[in-house]
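We include this case.
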Amino acid sequence: MSFTNARMRQLLPLIAVMALLLSSGCAMVTMKQVTPTDHVMLKRGDILNSGKLSALSQESLSVIGLTASACSKDLPACRNTVATVDGLQSEQRLSTLAELWMEEALALTPKAKLGKATELPAPALDAWLETARYSYAYLFFSGRTPAQRALEDRLTQVRDYYNYAAEQTASVVFQRTRALAIEGQDFSLPMQVDRWTISTNFDQLPLTSIPKDLVSASSVSFAGLRSSYRRDGFGAELVVVMEKAALTVPVTGVDTPVELPVFSEMPAINATALLHFKGDTLEEVLATREIRLESYSPDSTNTVMLRGQEVPLAANFTAAYGVWLAQSGFASESLRTLFGRGEGIREPHIYLMQPYDPNRRIIFMLHGLGSSPEAWVNLANEIMGDPEMRRHYQVWSVYYPTNAPIALNRYTVSNAFNGTLKHFDPKGTAPATHDMVFIGHSMGGVIARLMLSNSGEVLWDDALTRFKLHGERLKRVETRLGPLLHFTPQPNVERAIFIASPHKGTDAAGNRLGRMIGKLVRLPLTILGKFGDVFLALQNPDEAGNKPKEPRITTSIDNLKASDPFIEKSSTLPLAPSLKYHSIIANRKADVPTADSDDGLVPYWSSHLDGALSEKVVISGHSVQETPEAVLEVRRILREDLHEVDGVGSVH
């Protein structure tokens, strides 16, 4: 059946009327497929992460007849409309105003350099403070508590606005506070910043000097760290960088008592900043120009009270450690030390990875040959990032000249360690200094084992015999050599973990490559100055009765040879009877039987210890302490230790 032309002419007016009706407002609803990615972006995208207003803010604008594009052309007028026009609920109004203020703040803020505080122009700071104000009002004065909105995406968005605004404000306050402190002025007084009055409270931060820098933890990432540990919550995650200032304690040297810089707390600390707006009602908060910036140590504070509500404090537990290592220069300095080039380290130095806490037990880490505290980067980060371990342990690490003889390093490291313990716990009563844990890698494991062993007369008698020490010759060396060869176990150490440690030496130190490296090793001038005459006295005459003109002082490379008399004797020394110890051993070739294996430097027969509570073999080269498998094993052992000593958790 078909229409005639006449019939079509009759229908044309009707079709025209229908088209007119459709175009004049009778809109039709259509449907389209939305991908999961688009769905998530639609829900969670906002001005901070996408550069566009969130869907919720756009909905609020639509309710009162505005659009995002129109608002962007005149933000002040748009904000005024949002603030005054009826039709929006309190939560909609406040959260939309917070995002609109952030849009302006982002536009006015100069691009920051890596990890550096930004110089903010006054209009930008004003916009950030308004962002924080409306975020704060939404979070605590809009009718529902944060706990009641815990699962809502909007809460997370506005919390991020608040945190980011607090970070920007903290940057400005830091710069002004530092300038006042340097000038000797009272920086605790409220400061006037444009039209805002900002008071500060830094009492909870363990500041040891005037900070030199403030780093935004959210603006940096770290190559070389496998994980970054943080806690979601309220506040700006920051790193306060201190001037490098080593503390000193008296240490008995081999000649006379001297003042040496033997320890320092890590010159970078984690901090979290919060902004409090004066006022007890929504109207008062929206009208005030008075703010208080509170700074907290997230290592010791988990939650804070805001407007009568307990909320989690935001925290970054990795950032300070990463900033310190990135700025330390350890990598090149440790090699300069080994080969005696330039300004390498000359005495052991103890680094506290967190501010000292008398109630958290000490884990003491000793690195290996040609290395530094960077050897522990991932292991230390994993310990500090684990909430349970962080509550019960604190990490100390020694940095020592790895070219020195092992006997000397055991002596000087012990002195530095005990001097640091005495400084913080002079009476020896704090839980921190009891049931300590030692962890040593490679030569650091050998030194750790000696610190936990009893020498008796074994090493001294061997020296008397080998160097034919008697009479006047014995008197010349006994005072200074005796303490190096006589020692008892370090008290109050409950557990030790030895990682790829050549307790019985290694053939690699005596092979052609080892001998070549050994010839390049040079000892620090401090050692040559203190022990030159001692080692000269130890040189046995040749067959003609002539002593060598230039004594060759034994280095750590010499000591690590499997045939070295010192390593042969010291490997037989008994460990403290009550000590619990474990071994982690590397095998570089999976198809080689464990008993015949090595890690490229240390053979299994040297790193194996009878009596170990556990022995974990990991397929790896010598730097096995960096592998996830070794880190997991250390964490397992430490959890076992927490269970046995502190009654915390389980061993699984």
User: Anything to note?
Assistant: The longest strand covers residues 268-277. The first helix runs from residue 5 to 23. The chain has a mean pLDDT of 84. The two ends are 82 Å apart (CA to CA).
